[in-house]
Amino acid sequence: MKNMVYRMKNILRLLLTVSLLCLCGCGSAEDKTIIQYPDGVEFTGTLVPVEVPEAGFSTKMDESLTFTYKSSDGVYIYTRKEGIIPYVLINYFPGQADYLETYLAEDSIGWMKDHYGDDLLEISEVEDMTYEGKPLRGFTAKYNLDGAEINFMEVCEIVDEGIADYILKFEDSAEPYTMAAFKTALKEFSVNCSGTSGTSSTSGTETTKETTVTIQETRAEQLAKTMKQIKYGDLITMNIPASWEVSIGGYNMGTWIHAYDPADPTLQVFTCLKLNMLLKNDKAKAFWESRYRASGQSPLLKGWGEAVVNSSGTVREFFESDFGAYCQYLTSTDPSFAGFYYPSLERFQVLEEYNVTNMFSSVAVDNKLIHATFSDQLSQGNGEGMFAGSLVDLLPMMDPGYDAGVYGIYTMTGMSAPYGMLGEYLPLLSSILNSIEYSDTFIESVAQEEQITIENARQVNTYMQQTMDIVTEGWNARQKSYDIQSQQYSDSVLGYDRYLDTETNEVYRVEYGALDGYQGSRYQKIDQGSAYYTEPVAGYIVK
């Protein structure tokens, strides 16, 4: 294989170090090559099975690594820390051998070009490769992720008339151990495995003559046990799951906070205390564009000349139509958003909309909580969320003969999860947003910027609690028919039935086949359309 892509600039080598150590005693059965990297993790040389029956294949990995299975993607083998790059992603597509070239050229390379856009730094054509003596087809690429250069490699082999697909993502310094994990997985790959998922974390069992029922905690519960506090300078503190990331941009009331799961960005929270500069009509847009051009594109008028129009004066329009353009506007006009990881709300579809009452009600033009679905542009995942904001007329300006002033939105907030999973994750998401605490330094800056007293500025620490109360009320008042529909769709996609524990009246997602042969009476299957689909999921029953 051509090694061009994997001899790239050493931009990240200051962040990570890799050393290869060979123990003495060459030829001995006890010899091991140890690859050591940050966080104290080592490749021991001892291999353990990676078996996920529903994935249709098995392989092996070093015992020091972790893996998870996501039905929409495949098996992730993480080579540093669970849930983040670097990793090796493996999937198997049975009976698709004839589709290999089209899959790589159109589905993979075509998708990367379309969706990474200017962040795609380089990409090769499909070519022959050889690893572990196996003939492969694949390509390499490099893309920008929040200012870091990420190497990408996708290779495929034909196995039993199907496609075994391997995707690698890693920084330069993570190449040795990521490639080592890939080569092991490639060498040990076989189809039609049997076993259990490596992410299973049981919390209870019920045994009958035929079946042992294994109950797994929800992922939301697992994440809640890993919460850690992070600080943004001396301005903001908040609690997030250990595997999550946080992106922050802006200043004072205009600060955006976005906390998300890098393994699935639809699982996220984001908020901004005060969002500025939404023009009210197209005439105002034309007016400020002409003023901006006439000024020779003065930096003083850039924010006006490039402002986004919210013609209806509604929170719904902002999330439904203006959100992506407003994110681009921030990047163009505010250097503090350089490298900020924005939420992606493509194909935003409103399910329900509620009028809300809060501290801004007396001045708000529109005060809404919105229940909606959307798609994430990069991951292509489908999400469901609750979105809120109080749209206020910040500056009426009638001098041109029409209103050329601007709206603003206070407490612009969103929380979301994979489609059909919002109810399961809502307590976790609410706790993350409720944990946000703005420091005295931040509050003093807000008071100075807004020309208000320190006492009034301190109210910013009450905004989120009030918003979360509104979200909870809205969720409880939601149309149950929407929820039942999304829950049933999610179950069918992920491979679950829904069962009731008749002793505790708790509802469980049950992996297809997990209760085959079960003859107990405790767990009863829930009928399609049942109101039990709106109840929180207490856990998962797995094979």
Write the layout of secondary structure elements.
Layout: E1 19-22, E2 33-37, E3 41-42, E4 47-52, E5 57-62, E6 66-70, E7 74-78, E8 87-93, H1 100-116, E9 120-123, E10 127-131, E11 134-145, E12 148-159, E13 162-170, H2 175-188, E14 190-191, E15 202-207, E16 212-216, H3 219-224, E17 227-232, E18 236-241, E19 245-249, E20 256-261, E21 264-279, H4 282-294, H5 299-305, E22 308-309, H6 315-333, E23 346-355, E24 364-375, E25 382-395, E26 406-418, H7 422-434, E27 437-438, H8 440-450, H9 454-457, H10 460-476, H11 480-494, E28 496-501, E29 506-511, E30 523-525, E31 537-542
Parallel strand pairs: 21-22, 29-31
Antiparallel strand pairs: 1-2, 2-3, 4-5, 5-14, 6-7, 7-8, 8-13, 9-11, 10-11, 11-12, 12-13, 15-16, 16-31, 17-18, 18-27, 19-20, 20-21, 21-26, 23-24, 24-25, 25-26, 28-29, 28-30
Helix pairs in contact: 4-5, 7-10
